[in-house]
Amino acid sequence: MVLRHYWKLLPATSALLLTNLAMGQTPALMVKAPVGVVVKKGATVDVKLTATLNAGFHLNSHTPTEDYLIPLTLKWEGPLDVLDVVYPKPQMETYSFDPKPLSVLTGQFPLLTKFRAPATAPPGPVTLTGKVRYQACNNNSCFAPKNVPVTLTVQVLP
Amino acid sequence: MNTRGSLRTRLPIALVLLTMVVGVFWVMSRVSTERPVRRPPVKEVGKRQEAPDFALKDIDGKTVRLSDYRGKVILLDFWATWCGPCKMEIPWFMEFERKYKDRGFAVLGLSMDDDGWQSVKPFIQEFGMNYRVMIADERTGALYGGIDALPTAFLIDREGRVATEQVGVSSRRDFEDGIEALLEAPAGDKRAALN
Q1: Is B8 on the interface with A (CB under 8 A)?
Q2: Can you give the C-alpha Rg of chain A in angstroms?
Q3: pTM of the entire structure?
Q4: A139, A152, B161, B173: which one has the fewest Cβ atoms less than 10 Å from its Cβ?
C-alpha cells in the first residue's frame, strides 16, 4: 500500500528532475503580456510585461556597463503610439570572468511601456507585436542574442 | 486517527520529498559549470575525430582553411565580441601564440558576431590580437556539433584531429597542459591513430 503510493509520485519526481536538467543548460526568457488592457482613444495606458529568466543565468540590462555588451531592448509594432519604455533597475554583479561589476538582470523583472491610442483610432481591439531582445550568460559562458516575440491585445474605447 | 496510521501516510510523502530535494541538488551539481574538473589534458589518440575543415576569410580577405594548418597544433576558438568570458581568454591565447608559435602552434579565432567585421575589426585592433581571426556562422558551428555557448575551444593535433573540446571558460593551465601534450606527442601517435 505504502509502496504503491510512493511509485505514483515517481513520474512527477522524474519530470521535476528533467525540467531542472533542461533549464540548467541554456538560458530561456519567458515574457508574459497582460490581458484585458483597455484605453480610450486619445488617452494613454501603461502596460507591464513580466519577464522571467531561468535560474543560473543573467542578461545584460538596457544600460550595460561596457560598449561591447548587447543591451536588453523592447520594441513594438502596431497601431498605438509608444511614448516610453521603462526598463527595470539593474543589479550590479561581479562574475568570475570580469573583475568589473556588470549591469545585469536576473530572475523575474517587469518591462513597462506607455502607449497612447491616437485620437483617430477606431474603437475595437488592436494587436501589437513586441520583440524583446536579450543576450544572456552564466558564470563561465555566454549565449547568442535571442528575440522573444510578444503579442498584446488592447481594446480601444470610444 | 492513531499515530501509527498517520506515520504510514506521512512517511512515504516525506521519502518522496526527500528524494526530490536530493535529486534536484544532484542534478544541479552535475550541470553546474562552476565545478572544477581535472581531466587528462588531451583525449587518447584512438578516440580523436577528424576536425571538420572550413574555408573562411580573415581580416585581410584571405581565405583560411583549417587544412592549411595540417602539421601544426591548433587552438580553435569560437568566440564573440559580446562575450565577456571570451574576453578573459583572449590574452591567454595571445600569449600562447607568442610562446608556442615557433614550435608549430597557432591560434585560430572564429568570431560568431552577426555583424561580422563591423564589430570584430575594431575589437581586434583594440585588443591587439596577434592571431588570425575569421568570421564564422552557425553553419561553421554546426560542423563542430553546434556551438551554443561561447567560448568553445578545440585543441587540434598535428594530424588534424580534435584532441580536446572545452565549452565555457577553462583554466589557462588546462590549455597549456593540452598544448604541451600535443606539441610533445611522439611520432608513435600516428601509429596509434591507424590502429
Answers
A1: yes
A2: 20
A3: 0.78
A4: B173
- Nearest one of A56, A27, A52 to A144, comparing CA atoms: A27
- Vertex A85, ends A82 and A90: CA angle to 5°? 175
Cell 531582445, residue?
Answer: A133
The DSSP-derived string for chain A is -HHHHHHHTHHHHHHHHHHHHHHTTS--EEEE--SSEEEETT-EEEEEEEEEEPTT-EEE-SS-SSTTSPPPEEEEESSSEEEEEEPPPPEEEEETTEEEEEEEE-SEEEEEEEEE--TTPPSEEEEEEEEEEE-EE-SS-EE--EEEEEEEEEEEE-
C-alpha span between B74 and B66 (Å, rounded): 9
Beta bridge mates, A102: A93
Q: List, in order of start, the domains of chain A with CATH numbers.
A: 2-157 (2.60.40.1250)
Phi-psi category of residue B173: left, alpha or beta, with phi > 0 → left and psi -120 to 50 → alpha: alpha
**Adjacent-strand bridge partners of A129:** A77, A151
Q: Do B24 and A144 touch (CB under 8 A)?
A: no
> Which tens digit of pLDDT belongs to each residue from B22-70?
665 555 544 444 444 455 689 999 999 999 999 999 999 999 999 999 9
Planar angle of CA A69, A147, B124, nearest 5 degrees: 30
Count contacts between A and B (CB, < 8 Å): 97
> Residue A145: its chain B contacts at CB < 8 A?
82, 114
For B24, the closest of A5, A17, A25 (CB atoms) is: A17
- How much is the ipTM here? 0.78
- Categorize the per-residue pLDDT at B186 as very low, low, confident or very high, splitting at 50, 70 and 90: confident
Instruction: State whether residue B142 sits within 8 Å of chain A by CB.
Output: no
B50, B51, B57, B62 alpha-carbon torsion, rounded to 10°? -50
